[in-house]
Design a protein that fits this description.
22% strand, OB fold (Dihydrolipoamide Acetyltransferase, E2P)
Length: 135
């Protein structure tokens, strides 16, 4: 499981809005760390606030640890990267029947279809217990 520290900034029903204070898993400088925290800093300088399940009933201002199952990270990477690539290549191959232009149009349509499937059916990829929660 991946654990990230944060502070509850507000409540929203049975969820909490958590401002993440740490970057990633905290293993950026250790051997085997991926350095993903440094990559996200380069592209996102605004505060990171996430809506997570408030299973512990934390109050605003309280420091918490948010946990995410490892398989959730893997599945969301497959859904976010693998499915669009699959749609792109499948559309391109099917479009080859109509020549080079057909292949390009097919690739675009396949990519668009993959994004639509991903948006509507994200619970299929992630599973029922994939929601981040407060430890």
């Amino acid at each position: 499981m991946t654990e990230v520290r944060g502070t509850v900034s507000a409540l929203d029903g049975d969820h909490a809005l958590v401002r993440i204070t740490g970057e990633g898993c905290g293993r950026c400088h250790e051997p085997g760390g991926c350095g993903g925290g440094h990559l996200t800093q380069a592209f996102c300088s605004s505060p990171k606030i996430y809506r997570v399940l408030n299973s512990r009933e934390a109050k605003p201002g309280e420091e918490v640890v948010v946990i995410i199952r490892d398989r959730t990270l893997f599945r969301s990477a497959i859904a976010g990267y693998g499915l669009p690539l699959f749609g792109l290549f499948l559309g391109a191959v099917l479009g080859l029947e109509f020549g080079e232009v057909g292949s390009m149009i097919g690739a675009g349509c396949g990519l668009l279809m993959a994004f639509c499937v991903q948006k509507r059916k994200q619970d299929i990829f992630l599973g029922p217990d994939s929601e981040p929660r407060i430890k």
